[in-house]
Amino acid sequence: MADSLNCDLKSLSPLQLFERVTEQGEKVRALKAGKATKDEIDAAVRMLLSLKLSYKTTTGQDYQAGLPPKDLVLINNGTAKEEDEDLVDPWNVQTSNAKGVDYDKLIVRFGSSKIDTDLINRIERAIGQKPHHFLRRGIFFSHRDMDQVLDAYENKKPFYLYTGRGPSSQAMHVGHLIPFLFTKWLQEVFDVPLVIQLTDDEKYLWKDMTIEKAYEYARENAKDIIACGFDINKTFIFSDLDYLGTSAGFYKNIVKVQKHVTFNQVKGIFGFTDSDCIGKISFPAIQAAPSFSSSFPQIFNGKENIQCLIPCAIDQDPYFRMTRDVAPRIGQPKPALLHSVFFPALQGAQTKMSASDPNSSIFLTDTPKQIKTKINKHAFSGGRDTIEEHRKYGGNCDVDVSFMYLTFFLEDDDRLEQLKQAYTSGELLTGELKKVLIETMQPLVAAHQERRKQVTDEIVKQFMTPRKLAFEF
């Protein structure tokens, strides 16, 4: 039995071992709290010690709660890395690969689970309809505990959704819509409450802007979020600068998280240094707190045991790995997550979009002419140097940004596959593929702008007022 366990542990990655140690530690605490027999507790403790020994043997590091193995989790600002490794953290995305980040490697490194065909089929059975094309196409590709959320849903137990936006500029770009479009779909098919956090406090701490400007951006971004079509009776949008001063439940959870995460741990997880302001060091607890239903007593009637599901880009995962580690220690359920890939910059998947570079993406304020010019002039092509070569050898959809954008925004699977075949074979030229993207994006952005015009300051105020939503708890 011991030999088979050791063999099993040797097959695990350092990050998987880290997760196993964490889970076993929680099990020991639960057994002690539940007044289990001495034999049960002793067996669980022996297992915990064995796991910790395997972890140290594999990594050369002692296990520290909330501090994943540094050599594998590249989420530190400025961490030295292998040439072929991607750097992914909440503020930086770097890769040397023209195809973009290697997400299979990222799953292993972060210790999450791949969204496979079985999970997609299970979601389809649960909701009784075809899954969103973001799921079918692997745009949301990784998860933590989505099986638990589906178990709860199938057993008529409630859960809720939480996502967010860091309002760093007045204008959002089309990539910012991805989590909101998917979250809106999740809310509709599962019929659950949604909270949306606007981290204006974070942007004030990290960026060179006044606190008034950060708050103004939050309200402007809220208009773009509301224009996605969220139901006002089921959705609460909040600014940290506003809500933290009005909700005792929210602040209590922040303090609980802060007490259970050391300075050493946040330095390891986020790469903070001794010269960072203390606001940055304390901020991760603020992003963690909406994961707990007791942060919203007006919505959940004070209930503390309602699980949260967080759709977000995978660069936000470090915040929620920390949250998941702390949750059992403060008597809260771990949040579940659904991770999306990164939306590529027009110049290619190796570069990151920037609000300060208007040509790095299509912004929600762009005119039809600007959209056409940007795509024709800046969208990185997977085509050949000459028409003759392209006809002979075909284009590369893996690096072509126009095709990548169509993967996100062209909903027709058959049409997308036709374009892929035609471009790969050389039948379709780069200019023709760009034309398809232009014809897809112009009406999409124009329709968003029309909806945004209908969002008044009064509507924003209603969405952002703490209140009971259309659910009974």
TrEMBL record:
InterPro entries: aa-tRNA-synth_I_CS, aa-tRNA-synth_Ic, Rossmann-like_a/b/a_fold, Trp-tRNA-ligase, uS15_NS1_RNA-bd_sf, WHEP-TRS_dom
Domain WHEP-TRS: 13-69
EC number(s) on file: 6.1.1.2
PROSITE patterns linked: AA_TRNA_LIGASE_I, WHEP_TRS_1, WHEP_TRS_2
Statement: the UniProt record of this protein carries the keyword Ligase: yes
GO molecular function (one): ATP binding
UniProt GO BP: tryptophanyl-tRNA aminoacylation
Superkingdom per UniProt: Eukaryota
An example Gene Ontology CC term for this record: cytoplasm
Keywords: Aminoacyl-tRNA synthetase, ATP-binding, Ligase, Nucleotide-binding, Phosphoprotein, Protein biosynthesis
First-level EC class: ligase
Pfam families linked: tRNA-synt_1b, WHEP-TRS
Family: Belongs to the class-I aminoacyl-tRNA synthetase family.
Protein name: Tryptophan--tRNA ligase, cytoplasmic
Organism: Ploceus nigricollis
